[in-house]
Amino acid sequence: MNHWLMKTEPATFGIDDLARARNHTTAWDGVRNFQARNYMREMRLGDLAFFYHSSCDVPGIAGIVSITREAYPDHTAFDSEDPHFDEKSSPANPRWFMVDVKLVTKFDRVIALEELRRYGQDKLKNMVILKRGNRLSITPVSRAEWNFINSLL
């Protein structure tokens, strides 16, 4: 099993929105970065991901989701009315993909980015989210990082 971190802006779609979704499941669409897309194509059924809130008052990890459907073409890229439309993508030759995620647990508290940074020189020194200039919406998380972050709860 692989572990991931998936960033979203709670003003657009947060963990509470996922909790209200039918079966607590949704498609993770709209990714328009090639590296993040490639990470999604590596995701397998049952992989777990931290659900991370960004661009908000307290950025941080709000819960855990599981991958319930592996990468498939992101239909929003084909819809000229959708904000994620990409004229270079087509059903016959898709450039962008999405996965389905299901809420596993919403944490009682957000594990804030500042809390993660406190461990940045030690336990989480290689964690991608803590690297300067990282803006990827999907990043891998090592087993050691996964276990340590879960121990903070």
Automatic annotation (TrEMBL):
Q: Where is the signal peptide?
A: none
Where does this protein come from, organism-wise? Steroidobacter denitrificans
All copies of domain EVE, residue ranges: 2-151
PANTHER family listed in its UniProt record: THYMOCYTE NUCLEAR PROTEIN 1
Q: Which Gene3D superfamilies match?
A: ph1033 like domains
Classification via SUPFAM superfamilies: PUA domain-like
Checking InterPro entries in the record gives: 5hmC_binding, EVE_domain, PUA-like_sf, THYN1-like_EVE
Keyword Iron present in the record's keywords: the answer is no
Q: Does Phosphoprotein appear among the keywords?
A: yes
Put simply, this protein is called EVE domain-containing protein
Keywords assigned by UniProt, alphabetized: Phosphoprotein
CDD domains, A to Z = EVE
